[in-house]
Write a structure and sequence with these properties.
Order of helices and strands: EHHEEEEH
CATH class: Alpha Beta
Distance between the termini: 9 Å
Number of helices: 3
Structural class: alpha+beta
Largest sheet: 5 strands, antiparallel
Helix content: 10-25%
CATH superfamily: Hotdog Thioesterase
CATH architecture: Roll
Length: 136
């Protein structure tokens, strides 16, 4: 299991007139978590793109438990529970302190710049195999 944590602050533009974060804003927060996890694993998304790889979202799921409010400091916890092969599956938890606000998941596939499915870079496969082999 590979986990990353990053923080985001709920901006005014992300809220409705009641100061509650609009539900669609959780998806960009998941993206922040996803790109942080990849970067911490040694694969900044920008580098993947420079090498001709893309990771489109194939599926997304969100469950809202409590609202995020304007100016809340949120922790986006992103977890890869399975060693990725052709697809990457990620789980998310959005927290305000210890309070769970939402959970979610995304699934991604590697494609090239023409939109065709391709295998992930060999260095990515090797690094993920090493990471997951070291987890008890």
């Amino acid at each position: 299991m590979l986990t990353s944590r990053t923080e985001v602050q709920v901006r005014y533009s992300e809220t409705d007139m009641m100061g509650i974060a609009y539900h669609a804003n959780y998806l960009p927060w998941f993206e922040v978590g996803r790109t942080t996890l990849l970067k911490e694993a040694g694969f900044p998304y920008l580098e993947l793109e420079k090498n001709g790889y893309r990771l489109p979202v194939l599926a997304v799921n969100v469950k809202y438990k409590k609202p995020a409010i304007y100016d809340d400091l949120l922790t986006i916890e992103t977890t890869m529970t399975e060693e990725p092969t052709l697809r990457i599956s990620l789980d998310y938890r959005v927290l305000r302190g210890d309070e769970l606000l939402a959970t979610g998941s995304t699934q991604h596939a590697f494609i090239n710049t023409k939109g065709q499915p391709i295998r992930p870079p060999a260095t990515f496969v090797q690094k993920m195999a090493e990471i997951f082999a070291s987890i008890p």
